[in-house]
Amino acid sequence: MAGWSVLGVPIDSVGTVDGGPASGTERSPDALRGAGLVGRLGAHDAGDLDVRITGARRDPATGLVGGGTTAPVIAEVRRAVAALLRDGGRPLVVGGCCALEVGAVPGVRDALGDVALVHVDGHLDLYDHRTSPTGEVADMPVALLLGIGEPGLLAASGPRALDGDGVVVLGARDPDEARDLAPLAARLGVRATGPEEIRADAAAVTASSLAALGARPTWVHVDVDVLDQDAFPATDYLLPGGLALHELGALLHPLASSEHVVGVSVACYNPDKDPDGIWGAALVELLVGALG
Predict the structure, then answer these.
(1) For position 131, what pLDDT does the model report?
(2) Domains of the chain: total
(3) Quick one: which H or E segment has residue 129?
(4) Rounded average pLDDT over 269-276
(5) pLDDT of residue 173
(6) Which of the four pLDDT bands, split at 50, 70 and 90, describes residue 2?
(7) What confidence tens digit (pLDDT) does each residue in 154-185 have?
(8) What is the C-alpha to C-alpha distance for residues 128 and 196, in angstroms, rounded to an integer?
(9) Would strands 90-95 and 44-48 be described as parallel, antiparallel, or unpaired?
(10) Is residue 231 a contact partner of residue 240, using CB atoms and an 8 Å limit?
């Protein structure tokens, strides 16, 4: 397999002040580099994309926080991931928030054709610009990749990247979201496996997930809120009942070792909630163990 190319996407879909200092998950790529991610993986550093989601108010026209600043982010991530793959790299995209996933997966499709997704997240992420409680694109990536959502974002991500049978969601456990979205997930054919099954046998969950997706080039997206709120408090959407750090590592290692997995993204680490860098260091340790 090709070595990792670390690409930073410093965005936060809560919408930041245009021209203001980086904050929240925007700071994650720099923090993870500072904790030694690139060197310890022996990775190529592909730098950061010059992208930002700005404006904290929900735009009445699009239904999105960040309004028209979101689609250009998706288009740029899509372009950059496709370029890395065409150059023979194996992207490790570090965010930033989960909005980056909406560009990364289409980038795989552009470069390699048919694509599948393993979405490791505490949430299903199947809201759209009308149903989302927040209007943040981080609520919506799986829906958008399935062709459901705000027209400008769909145009930026291109033709529908996925069908329901090309998506596996691992670790979702938000009861409020499940009440809203579980019926939609079932209609779309999205497979979802909760934390208890992962905790019981991560290797079996990985094997069955990859078998279900077949031989397609596969992207793995990790939102750190799949971790329990006590295991990793440096994220914005804290939930009990999630995975421990070692349990997430046991899930990711066989995924990253698969010949079909062409890239990984990691999102939603918030250095503002980690002033001593303890949790960033723990995340780097996990990623080096799982991906190295």
Answers:
(1) 97
(2) 1
(3) none
(4) 98
(5) 98
(6) confident
(7) 999 999 999 999 999 999 999 999 999 999 99
(8) 27
(9) unpaired
(10) no
Q: Which two tokens stand for residue 116?
A: 């599948």
Which domain CATH number covers 92?
Answer: 3.40.800.10
- Percent of all residues in the chain with a pLDDT value above 70, rounded to a whole number: 100
DSSP reduced 3-state for 261: strand
User: Domain containing 170: what range?
Assistant: 4-291
- Dihedral angle over CA of 53, 55, 60, 62, nearest 10: -10
Residues 6 or more apart whose Cβ sits within 8 Å of residue 60: none
Nearest 10 degrees: CA dihedral of 162, 256, 1, 259? -60
Q: Is the dihedral of CA 255, 260, 262, 267 positive or negative?
A: negative
* pLDDT recorded at residue 1: 65
Give the separation between CA 135 and CA 60, rounded to whole angstroms. 10
- How confident is the model at residue 42, as a pLDDT? 97
pTM score, two decimals?
0.98
pLDDT digits (tens, 9 = 90+) for 82-105: 999 999 999 999 999 999 999 999
Q: What is the DSSP-derived secondary structure letter of residue 174?
A: -
Distance CA 248, CA 171 (A): 9
pLDDT, averaged across the chain? 97
Residues 6+ positions from 176 with CB-CB distance below 8 Å:
none
